[in-house]
Amino acid sequence: MDFQAEPGLTLEIRILDCFKITPEAVTDENAHKIGIENLKTVEDVKKYIFDSLMEQMVGEALFNYGLKVIDSIRDNNVAIELPQDLVANDVKDFNFAPDFEGNKEETVESSVVNYFW
Fold this sequence. Notes:
mainly alpha; 50% helix; 8% strand
Protein backbone atom coordinates (compact mmCIF):
# COMPACT_ATOMS: atom_id res chain seq x y z
CA MET A 1 0.00 0.00 0.00
CA ASP A 2 1.41 3.40 -0.96
CA PHE A 3 0.92 6.46 1.21
CA GLN A 4 1.53 10.03 0.07
CA ALA A 5 3.06 11.70 3.14
CA GLU A 6 3.46 15.06 1.40
CA PRO A 7 3.78 16.22 -2.20
CA GLY A 8 6.77 14.49 -3.74
CA LEU A 9 7.16 11.97 -0.90
CA THR A 10 5.45 8.62 -1.22
CA LEU A 11 5.97 5.91 1.36
CA GLU A 12 5.32 2.22 0.86
CA ILE A 13 3.57 0.76 3.88
CA ARG A 14 3.38 -2.99 4.30
CA ILE A 15 1.13 -4.36 7.05
CA LEU A 16 2.81 -7.42 8.50
CA ASP A 17 0.22 -8.45 11.03
CA CYS A 18 -2.85 -7.23 12.85
CA PHE A 19 -4.94 -8.40 15.75
CA LYS A 20 -8.03 -7.46 17.67
CA ILE A 21 -8.26 -7.38 21.43
CA THR A 22 -11.49 -8.87 22.68
CA PRO A 23 -12.25 -8.18 26.34
CA GLU A 24 -13.26 -11.28 28.23
CA ALA A 25 -13.95 -12.12 31.84
CA VAL A 26 -11.01 -13.60 33.73
CA THR A 27 -11.57 -17.26 34.48
CA ASP A 28 -9.42 -20.10 35.76
CA GLU A 29 -9.10 -21.24 32.15
CA ASN A 30 -7.73 -17.96 30.77
CA ALA A 31 -5.97 -16.36 33.78
CA HIS A 32 -2.60 -17.48 32.41
CA LYS A 33 -3.18 -15.34 29.29
CA ILE A 34 -2.58 -12.18 31.34
CA GLY A 35 1.10 -12.91 30.84
CA ILE A 36 2.29 -12.54 34.42
CA GLU A 37 4.19 -15.48 35.82
CA ASN A 38 2.40 -17.42 38.58
CA LEU A 39 -1.08 -16.18 37.62
CA LYS A 40 -2.92 -19.40 36.94
CA THR A 41 -6.35 -18.89 38.54
CA VAL A 42 -8.86 -16.12 39.22
CA GLU A 43 -7.80 -16.18 42.87
CA ASP A 44 -4.17 -15.66 41.82
CA VAL A 45 -5.25 -12.63 39.77
CA LYS A 46 -7.32 -11.19 42.64
CA LYS A 47 -4.44 -11.64 45.09
CA TYR A 48 -1.98 -10.08 42.63
CA ILE A 49 -4.22 -7.04 42.11
CA PHE A 50 -4.83 -6.67 45.86
CA ASP A 51 -1.12 -6.97 46.70
CA SER A 52 -0.13 -4.53 43.94
CA LEU A 53 -2.69 -1.94 45.05
CA MET A 54 -1.75 -2.30 48.71
CA GLU A 55 1.94 -1.89 47.89
CA GLN A 56 1.19 1.24 45.86
CA MET A 57 -1.11 2.71 48.52
CA VAL A 58 1.32 2.03 51.37
CA GLY A 59 4.20 3.46 49.33
CA GLU A 60 2.25 6.64 48.58
CA ALA A 61 1.12 6.96 52.21
CA LEU A 62 4.71 6.62 53.47
CA PHE A 63 5.94 9.15 50.92
CA ASN A 64 3.23 11.66 51.90
CA TYR A 65 3.97 11.06 55.60
CA GLY A 66 7.65 11.72 54.92
CA LEU A 67 6.81 14.99 53.18
CA LYS A 68 4.72 16.05 56.18
CA VAL A 69 7.60 15.21 58.53
CA ILE A 70 10.00 17.29 56.44
CA ASP A 71 7.51 20.19 56.30
CA SER A 72 7.08 20.00 60.08
CA ILE A 73 10.85 20.06 60.63
CA ARG A 74 11.15 23.06 58.31
CA ASP A 75 8.31 24.89 60.03
CA ASN A 76 9.75 24.31 63.52
CA ASN A 77 13.41 25.07 62.86
CA VAL A 78 15.29 28.31 62.60
CA ALA A 79 16.26 29.29 59.09
CA ILE A 80 19.71 28.23 58.00
CA GLU A 81 22.23 31.06 57.71
CA LEU A 82 24.50 30.57 54.72
CA PRO A 83 27.90 32.27 54.57
CA GLN A 84 27.76 35.26 52.22
CA ASP A 85 30.92 34.19 50.37
CA LEU A 86 29.20 30.87 49.55
CA VAL A 87 26.12 32.69 48.28
CA ALA A 88 28.21 35.16 46.25
CA ASN A 89 30.21 32.32 44.71
CA ASP A 90 27.04 30.38 43.83
CA VAL A 91 25.45 33.49 42.29
CA LYS A 92 28.37 33.59 39.83
CA ASP A 93 27.92 29.91 38.91
CA PHE A 94 24.10 29.80 39.00
CA ASN A 95 22.41 29.40 35.62
CA PHE A 96 20.03 32.37 35.60
CA ALA A 97 17.84 33.05 32.57
CA PRO A 98 19.00 36.10 30.60
CA ASP A 99 15.76 37.92 31.46
CA PHE A 100 15.83 37.02 35.19
CA GLU A 101 14.53 39.97 37.24
CA GLY A 102 14.39 38.60 40.80
CA ASN A 103 16.87 38.80 43.65
CA LYS A 104 19.73 36.49 42.68
CA GLU A 105 21.05 36.11 46.24
CA GLU A 106 17.62 35.10 47.60
CA THR A 107 17.12 32.65 44.74
CA VAL A 108 20.51 31.01 45.36
CA GLU A 109 19.98 30.84 49.13
CA SER A 110 16.53 29.29 48.67
CA SER A 111 17.88 26.75 46.16
CA VAL A 112 20.75 25.69 48.43
CA VAL A 113 18.54 25.37 51.52
CA ASN A 114 15.86 23.43 49.60
CA TYR A 115 18.53 21.14 48.14
CA PHE A 116 19.78 20.14 51.57
CA TRP A 117 16.34 20.00 53.15
